[in-house]
Amino acid sequence: MADTTGTLPMSDDAINQGTGKTWSEWRELLDTWGASEKSHKEIASFVSNEHGVDDWWAQGVALGYERLIGRRSVGQRADGKFSTSASKTMSAGIARHFAAWVDESQRNNWLPPGTLTLRTAQDGKSARFDDNESGGIIALWFTDKGETKSSVSIQIEGLPDKTAADARKALWKTRLNDLAVYLKG
Fold first, then answer.
1. What SS3 class is residue 29?
2. Whole-structure pTM value
3. Fewer CB within 10 Å, N- or C-terminus of the chain?
4. What domains appear along the chain, each with residue ranges and CATH number?
């Protein structure tokens, strides 16, 4: 199999350990079945139902196969849109960190006003926003790391292409640094 470093969602060893087959074996099996003409959902269902693979691993096989045949790029979702992610650990407890996101007056201290519109939030755990700049959605997950530390993982969804995804990732890394400065103040 050609070098696919950076293309596949996991290593050959990991997929073999999780599913009992290597990427080469999955490629051959799925090509023979006609997977290149099937949807992501059909491929995942086939892998799960016909080969007894857990649903999570079946999704990984389907994604990897779609990348191998050039149907999907890294960061591209089944609907053709792109997503990207970023994360950062902050020197602030979870309550303060969470409030810096969900309290609009606090958010406006480190982020340009009007950038995000809160959709939903689960106190200290997660939040979803409309990204008013990109038209996408930003999902956040918070992790408590002790009295004076917490982290946030951001998933930026609904982007039109890889270039936009790369640009948003870089922008949000800068914004996370701005948040870290705000939280130290």
1. helix
2. 0.73
3. C
4. 12-68 (no CATH), 82-184 (3.30.530.20)
